[in-house]
Amino acid sequence: MKKLSCALLLGAAFAFSAQAADTAPRWPDFPAPIKNGAGARIGATVYAGLGSAGKAWYALDTGKPGAPWVALAPFPDAARDAASAVAINGLVYIFGGSGKNAPEDKALTVFDTAYVYDPAANSWRQLPTRAPLGIFTASVVSVDQRNIVFFGGVNKAIFDGYFQDYAVGAADNKERQAVVAGHYFDQRPQDYLWTAQVMSYNPQTNQWRNLGTDPQLPTVGAGVAVHGQLVTMVNGEIKPGLRSPNVKEVSVDGDKLTWKQGGKLPAPPGAARQEGVAGSFAGYSNNVLLVAGGANFPGAWQQFDAGQNYAHKGLKKTWRDDIYARRDGKWWHAGKLPAGMGYGTGIQLDDGVLLIGGELDGGAASKDVFLLQWDGKAVRLVH
Description:
- The protein is mainly beta.
- The protein has a single domain (about 5-380), classed as Neuraminidase.
- The chain has three helices and 32 strands.
- Strands 1, 28, 29, 30, 31 and 32 form a six-stranded antiparallel sheet that branches. It has a four-stranded antiparallel sheet with strand order 2-3-4-5, with no helix packed on it. Strands 6-7-10-11 form a four-stranded antiparallel sheet, with no helix packed on it.
- The longest helix is centred in the middle third of the chain and has 14 residues, at about 155-170.
- It is globular.
- It starts with 6 loop residues before the first strand and ends with a strand.
């Protein structure tokens, strides 16, 4: 089946090889450290930016080894993290994200606006629409080059309200901030009202359609891979701080969705269970589905199962270095990255997944760019 490119909110990294790659440097570093960015592919050209790179937007011709990243027209609105990007019909569409309306603002907000970048004109324009439901950190794909489909998303009213209460209402009073955070995190997954409806947007008609609901709890920050009409969503959060270990699969045929179970990621070596990850990257290489990186809070499920809704309270956020692979329906642990990483940008290429930047342990952003591949026997990362 044809592999379609889509933007993935994913982990990324620096040099790794589950089997060392004996190749000269192939991929140039990104012009600036970047995490929580966005990107998409049109033909041989990859477009990426936003996130910690601010409003910057760049292009890379993957068909020309050694070609540099080229600066393009900057994004025209407020800088934003974790926006969703997808390319259809020679244009790149940017949806949502979170940030500040003005640099002096104290509180973050979720954006519900949409923009389109035209490579031929090197120009941006805002679309005359707004997302009808929360789409921040949703899984966003196109399988037909006509419609853009959205799975999951954070509730804008609840997210904005939390940051308004935390950053403005509690100001710099740490005790008051702790109370606000405690109330926010001490809720069941269903109480966050994340978007269960699956929506599609058609840029030609400027219309949104409701395709139905996710039969499981909606997730945000999942690793996303597309293979023909099949969309695979790996893990993601079911509430702040708690990840799902499940893999969802859905076939998209026009307005028809056919859901099936995609199994669970196996537990990483030395761990009693799979906690699930958010901010991983996913994609295909030689018909093998690869998933790597991301972050979680080890012990969160134990606390949640014991009745503690604030599942990650007192736990340390951990950036994962695990790589998983699936072939013929079977998952296995396929290796490790050189360090934990997540929340980068991954782009499906013909022979693997291009990893752009990412967040390293402790929150630092990376500018490294690599290609994750399956060589028939093992995973390798080509610099």
